[in-house]
Design a protein that fits this description.
The protein has 19 helices and 30 strands. The chain is α/β, with parallel strands linked by helices and 800 residues long. α11 packs antiparallel against α12 and α11 runs parallel beside α13.
């Protein structure tokens, strides 16, 4: 699992240096003559080979704020007083001085906060500060943590950069000021010179001592789960990942079919005793203790139990699945300590507490128009899920779901469990042991080894004049100011939307601070603090120069996900909201920053020139296209709710490469240039790879030369490749080695395993590939050229 970085697409035509904003060559006038537009001249993401390492200083030598590199580039950040954009990335790297100016710009103001992000291997580690019983130094009024922007008035008193209150430091923290007005120890104390620090939390930050990480594995053993290989796969991946489980962990195992079975592992006993919970309407934990035991002391017993489970249930008669009731019993079992319920499911829970029926996209629709009616099938079907998840969060229990499914399971409802407990939702549609086992194994292993925190609470503070409007992501919110996270990990990003409460002072800086109090998996209580400084401006042009495309795309994706997962939103309104946001931004730029250009041209700000392309990609994604199945849609929307900017961009605009002509004697990076997302670019005698940060799809043309087919896939007939079973072979040919090395480079860049599927022309699953070619006209929407003309028309209508 490598470092998370991302690649982008080839450049549009070279931009004349003298032109700060560029009209689109030959753009259609408002009459919409799309035929006159040359598709090769329209904006696409800039090509990046990822060959050269970008170094980014978070403050300049003159101690000024700097604009962060694109989230899709690989960069090494150097924290010189403001947090690395990996941890906090604002949709605008400069802030407007008034709320009115923000409204005029048409752009959102939100901070994408990823407090436990995986750092680049070459970045300096985060400094750990132990102030003993004193704990972190904080403002006496707003409780903000000490940071490089707090101003010391003398050896004793400092003024808070958030609320301007003056606080005295404890005796042991006093220090004289130098001639420059700074403390003489400012370079030695990390909290005075770094944007990100971590504190050892003193006793008063704990309700109880940190608990040992505790895991309850819940495995479905219905006859369908047994026959589809899910039960055996789950037992096998758990066995293979026990080495990755934290060393002091407590582990328990339960199985479920129409009843729930716990296993009581007594220290030293050879065989565990099975305890059956038959009541699936009101499930419970059958014992107060002994259901979870020390992994280190009981490793052999746990392994032999996992080997025994598939055999024990091998002849189960077909029957219903009480998984939801089993998760509830698991929560009861973990209530005293907190921990994780990790549920491996193969079928829809259809008996007992929270029983569900698979819903179709048209369920609850009054008319046939799926675009215009509220998507009721995205709201949870049963209130029991919300109640159960909130209850779990209260006792610091997190729920991870591994949905190894071959039919619909109502992801929209099940997803509430991980969403409210800081958990993870994994889905393997059309589960097939050959194709999905490696992905399942990688997912479970990464779940244990990624940077993560337990029993966490997070709060974001902003400068006087700004306030937090809302949080968006996977968490439980019980108070106005904080969010509770039974678990949080390096893959979870929380968007924090800010609002204006007063004017800000033009020319100064505004500050945003994220504080995360959490327990490590090694049972230490820590406080991680990230602070960023953003310059304040009254100039609209400066705001557009500070626009962060990846963070704004992430915001648009999350806004749509939030609206649709409520069950009240319509596809039409979600598409329209993202389109209107795009138009408002481009209109403001045209009117206030480029008004001297002719009206026949579409003018795009340099930093946002692919905003229309990403908006179109969002409209055609599984989250918003009308022909997506409810489970595909819900899985996409839940992923959007916690995705970082690094992965929100490829989710709406994947990368497409030709692989029949990969360079065979070089290593990757350099990543070869991407192609446009259009079927016009696909030749029948070629093979192509498309990746969206989550999976890899390979498409093979029917006329691919036999020798290429043999070198890449080890066969001479395209029809030998069956898309539901095929995996990418490792052959001893230069072409195969190059392809495998290229795929590994992509996986490393995305920081994900990304299962690969092979599709061929005329395949039943071919739509998986074509649906992602968002530049083509399709039932899901206009072509990219048509969409640009449509945007242009809307901007002109607004101007007139």
């Amino acid at each position: 699992r490598g470092w998370v970085g991302m690649g982008v697409m080839p450049p549009a035509a070279p931009v004349p240096a003298s032109h700060p904003h560029r009209p689109m060559p030959g753009a259609a006038s408002a009459t919409g003559a799309t035929s006159r537009i040359d598709p090769s001249q329209i904006p696409r993401p800039q090509y990046a080979s990822h060959e050269e390492r970008v170094t980014y200083n978070t403050r300049s030598e003159m101690d000024q704020a700097t604009h962060p590199p694109s989230a899709t580039l690989e960069y090494v950040g150097c924290d010189l007083g403001s947090a690395n954009p990996r941890y906090m990335r604002s949709t605008l790297s400069s802030l407007p001085n008034t709320g009115d100016l923000l409204t005029t710009s048409g752009m959102p103001l939100s901070i994408m906060t990823r407090p436990l992000a995986l750092p680049h291997p070459e970045e300096a580690p985060i400094h750990l500060i132990d102030n003993g019983k004193t704990g972190p130094i904080r403002c006496g009024r707003c409780k903000a943590y000490m940071n490089p922007y707090m101003r010391f008035l003398d050896h004793l008193r400092f003024e808070c950069n958030f609320c301007y209150f003056i606080t005295e430091v404890p005796h042991e923290y006093m220090c004289n000021l130098g001639a420059n007005g700074k403390r003489t120890d400012w370079t030695e104390r990390q909290e005075l010179c770094r944007g990100t620090v971590e504190y050892v939390a003193p006793q008063e930050y704990m309700v109880r001592p940190p608990m040992a990480p505790t895991y309850l594995f819940l495995i479905e053993v219905t006859s369908q789960a047994i026959h589809s290989g899910v039960t055996t796969s789950a037992c096998e991946v758990i066995m293979r990942t026990l080495d990755s489980v934290p060393k002091d962990a407590q582990v328990g195992i339960a199985t479920v079919d129409s009843a729930i079975h716990f296993y009581h592992l007594k220290d030293g006993a050879e065989k565990p005793s099975m305890l059956i919970v038959p009541d699936v309407e009101d499930s419970y934990a059958p014992l107060k203790s002994g259901l979870v035991v020390s992994l280190a002391k009981n490793r052999e017993a746990i392994e032999s139990l996992l080997k025994m489970i598939p055999e024990t249930f091998s002849s189960t008669a077909p029957g219903p699945n009480a998984s939801t009731a089993a998760i509830k019993a698991g929560i009861e079992c973990l209530k005293p300590t907190g921990g994780k319920v990790m549920a491996f499911m193969a079928t829809i829970p259809n008996v007992g507490l929270g029983k569900l029926e698979a819903r179709t996209g048209t369920a609850g629709q009054r008319t046939g128009n799926i675009e215009k009616e509220p998507l009721k099938c995205m709201a949870p079907a049963d209130k029991a899920y919300h109640t159960m998840a909130t209850y779990a969060a209260e006792y610091q229990v997190c729920i991870d779901l591994f949905l190894c499914v071959s039919s619909a399971v109502d992801v929209a409802t099940l997803g509430v469990l991980p969403r409210l407990t800081g958990g993870s939702l994994y889905r393997y549609p059309g589960f097939n042991v050959q194709q999905d086992f490696a992905q399942l194994h990688n997912d479970l292993r990464w779940n244990f080894i990624r940077p993560q925190g337990l029993e966490a609470v997070m709060r974001v503070r902003a400068s006087s004049g700004l306030g937090v409007q809302d949080y968006n992501g996977f968490f439980c919110k019980r108070t106005m100011t904080d969010i509770d996270l039974p678990a949080i990990d390096s893959d979870k990003t929380i968007a924090v939307t800010l609002r204006y409460e007063d004017k800000l002072v033009d020319g100064r800086e505004a500050y945003v601070q994220c504080a995360l109090l959490y327990s490590t998996t090694t049972m230490e209580r820590r406080i991680r603090v990230h602070t960023i400084a953003l310059p304040i401006t009254s100039v609209l042009g400066a705001l557009f120069r500070s626009a962060d495309l990846d963070a704004q795309s992430d915001w648009a994706v999350r806004k749509a996900a939030n609206a649709l997962l409520s069950g009240n939103g319509t596809l039409a309104s979600a598409k329209d909201a993202s389109l209107q946001q795009c138009i408002a931004t481009l209109f403001a730029y045209r009117r206030f920053c480029a008004s001297n250009n002719s009206s026949g041209q579409l003018i795009l700000p340099e930093g946002l020139k692919t905003l229309p392309l990403y908006t179109l990609g969002l409209h055609k994604s599984y989250g918003l296209r009308s022909d997506a199945s409810p489970d595909d849609r819900a899985a996409w929307l839940y992923r959007a709710l916690h995705a970082p900017p690094e992965l929100a961009t490829p989710a709406v605009y994947p990368r497409l490469f030709s692989i029949h002509d990969l360079p065979q004697d070089s290593s990757f990076p350099p990543i070869p240039p991407c192609m446009w997302l259009s079927s016009e670019k696909l030749n029948q005698d070629g093979a192509y790879l498309l990746e969206d940060g989550q999976e890899i799809l390979i498409w093979i043309g029917r006329q691919l030369p036999v020798e290429t087919l043999r070198d890449l896939f080890g066969t001479e007939n395209v029809d030998d490749i069956v898309s539901t079973r095929a995996t990418i072979p490792n052959l001893d040919t230069p072409a195969s080695k190059a392809l495998n090395s290229f795929i590994n480079a992509i996986r490393k860049q995305r920081g994900a395993f990304m299962r690969a599927r092979i599709l061929k022309r005329g395949d039943t699953l071919e739509a998986l590939f074509y649906n992602r070619l968002s530049e083509d006209r399709s039932p899901a929407g206009m072509s990219y050229v048509e969409f640009l003309c449509h945007c242009h028309r809307l901007i002109m209508n607004k101007s007139n």
